Amino acid sequence: xxxxxxxxxxxxxxxxxxxxxxxxxxxxxxxxxxxxxxxxxxxxxxxxxxxxxxxxxxxxxxxxxxxxxxxxxxxxxxxxxxxxxxxxxxxxxxxxxxxxxxxxxxxxxxxxxxxxxxxxxxxxxx
Length: 126
Hints:
alpha+beta, 8-stranded antiparallel beta sheet
């Protein structure tokens, strides 16, 4: 009986460990840079397919249009996620999404894109 309880307890502990470590924050929504010239649209994340849609447009030049799909990786559980984008031409981009500030940051250019709930005062309404 003691072995059965020990095994059950170990199983519960392992299950708690896996549930506590894995929640990726989903950034679905519309984000704009501080000037409102670049708009990023993140589609809903399909957990079964492990992907979502990505679109970046420029309000000053309609010819600038980047489209593709993204996948998520946990950066800090329930707080931030890595958003790995693959464009239709095969180019890749990586963003860091922080749910506490509702900000998406391009890791190459370090440009911040603010969501509608951004906590920074100068963030535009997307």
